[in-house]
Amino acid sequence: MTETLDSAAVAQFLADHPQFFAEHAALLGQVKLSSPLTGKTVSLQERQMEVMRDKYKALELQLSTLVRLAQENTAIANKFHGWNQALLQAHHGADLPRALLDGLCAQFDVPQATLRLWDLDGAHGARWFTQDVSDDARIFANSLLAPYCGSNHDFEAVRWLDDAAAVQSTVILPLRSGGAAFGLLILGSPDARRFGAEMGTDFLIHIGETASAALAALRA
Question: What is the pTM of this model?
C-alpha cells in the first residue's frame, strides 16, 4: 500500500535534496501555483521570480530609508557645526548667551529661543539672562532629568520668550555643571506639532550639553 505524504514531508524532502529540480528540470514548468499578486496560476519559475522581485523591492525600500536617514543626519551635523562656530566666535563671555540663541534660531529654524542663568560670576548679575528667575524655576530645572518636549502648559520658563502667548509647543533644556542645574534653555514654536512629546531627545541632549559647556564659563 502506498504511503500518503503530507506537505511537511514533501517540503522536508525537497530541503534535504536541493538537487531535485536540477535532476528533474522539466517539473519546473509543470508545477503550477496560485500567484497572490495576480490571482492567476503561474509556474514555479514565475512564482520564484515574483518572490525575488518582492525581496528586491523590500531591499530597495530599506536602502532608500537608510539614504534618507543619512542625508538627514548629515544636515543635522552641518547645522550643529555651524552653531558651534557661532559659539566659538563669541569673543566676550557676556556675548555667549546671545550668540548661542541666535545660532540656534538661524541654524535650526527655531521661531523663538531664550535662556536664563543663575549662580554666575558677580559681573553678570545685571544681565538680561539673569533676570526674573524664581526659586520655583530653579527647582523645576533641577527636577528635569531629560529635555521636556511637548505642549506649552504655561510654564514660567516659556513666559521668558518674547512672544510667549503664541507658543503652542516647546522644548525646555536644563543647563548643568557638576550635576547641578544653573540655567534653562527654552525653545518655542507656534506650531503645536513642531516639538511633539514623541520626538527623539538624543539630539536635544547634545544641544543641552554643548550649551552647558559653553555657558559654564560665566559661572562664579
Answer: 0.69
